[in-house]
Design goal:
Layout: H1 3-30, H2 35-40, H3 47-68, H4 73-98, H5 106-130, H6 139-158, H7 179-182
Helix pairs in contact: 1-3, 1-5, 3-4, 3-5, 4-5, 4-6
């Protein structure tokens, strides 16, 4: 493995994943609700939608790293699984901490949450691989966890559970918002007419 190249790729992964997250986060609005943006982008302002926009860019960058640098597959899968779950946890945790801070500008806070989550995810995977932590034994667990995460991604995107993690902060709705709300009408106004 080319260690310097891998370290550089991990650090460049932070702005690359963040840029992809931003594009996916606003893709739904910018594409006027195109089908691809419903599956890959954020359809509301819930914590899940912020996590969802991190998962695919992060794993896509990991695949690019795997192709560019010959990291053993078992180590890479375990390190990236640890990274994606830690990053998702940080995004969710900080997302809800922001609700407790009076007068905070939520858009900037969500950007900070995303940056912290991605940086932590990349940092964890970097340390696990560079320090040669023995993660090969965790390959089966990590692979299963990533498959489970993908299943959650596909299931919760289409049919989110009624939990605060999936609740839109602006409207109180879950998942894809009804068209009048999505078009800018205030929640509850004009939905029944």
């Amino acid at each position: 493995m080319e260690e310097k190249t891998f370290v550089r790729l991990e650090w460049w992964g932070i702005p690359a994943v963040l840029a992809a997250m931003l594009a996916l986060h606003y893709g739904y609005r910018l594409s006027s609700g195109a089908m691809w943006s419903i599956l890959f982008g954020a359809v509301n302002e819930s914590a899940w939608e912020h996590i969802k926009t991190m998962i695919l860019p992060y794993l896509g960058w990991a695949a690019a790293e795997l192709c560019a640098v010959r990291v053993p597959l078992r180590r890479m899968v375990a390190a990236k699984a640890a990274g994606v779950f830690a990053g998702a946890g940080v995004i969710a945790g900080l997302f809800f901490v922001g609700l407790l801070i009076p007068g905070i500008q939520l858009t900037m806070w969500h950007l900070l949450c995303s940056a912290a989550g991605v940086a932590l995810a990349q940092g964890i995977s970097l340390l696990l691989i560079i320090r040669e932590v023995k993660t090969e034994g965790w390959f089966a667990v990590a692979a299963f966890a990533l498959v489970l995460l993908l299943a959650m991604y596909l299931t919760f995107t289409v049919n989110p559970p009624k939990m605060i993690l999936f609740q839109d902060l602006d409207t109180g709705a879950y998942g894809l918002l009804p068209r009048p709300v999505d078009s800018g009408v205030l929640f509850g106004e004009g939905l029944l007419t």
